[in-house]
């Protein structure tokens, strides 16, 4: 059911004080592990490399590919000793953050990155979109457990959004409440024939003992942030310089 590998690259960026500033769907890519023969056409991955026949991928449960954040052209690295990040607004692929519509042209890019990631996940949970970035579709039931976390990540007030460490902790807590049956549900709505094939495939895996999640080693929980560092990653506007212990 899980559409993405745990966001370790996101935490790596944060540990190095890097704000991506354009975390949209096209900037997160899946490695081609689902094509064991390597025969696929990158622009249309359902076709083979010659673009003549259909490709033959395996399922992600069979290989659990990793996902990678790309395109750091708008990214910036910051030094906490120089104070809170204060950056001019850049209108990237996602133009819906509330702070991009405020009068001030300056904002902290880290809460905006959290909004971008929340909006990206919302596109998976609510696949039907309307102009303005607002979806009126009901959440896809197998992914509806993510809705409380998405709401926090997309709060109108940037200061009240969680840090990436808090996002991972909340995601882990929500995921641990799911049963194996929950984890075997499809990650997107399916037509009846595809739904039948999915149920049959998951029944075979359950019978043969194939786990719905891979046994990746768990990362240690991130250490708690000091008040100054929490402000560094969450405060919307602040003084041009301050001491961050």
Automatic annotation (TrEMBL):
Residue ranges constituting the Protein kinase domain according to the UniProt record: 1-178
Gene3D superfamilies for this protein: Transferase(Phosphotransferase) domain 1
GO MF, one example: protein kinase activity
PROSITE patterns for this protein: PROTEIN_KINASE_DOM
Domain of life assignment: Eukaryota
Name of the molecule in the record: Protein kinase domain-containing protein
Organism: Mycena belliarum
Organism lineage string: Eukaryota, Fungi, Dikarya, Basidiomycota, Agaricomycotina
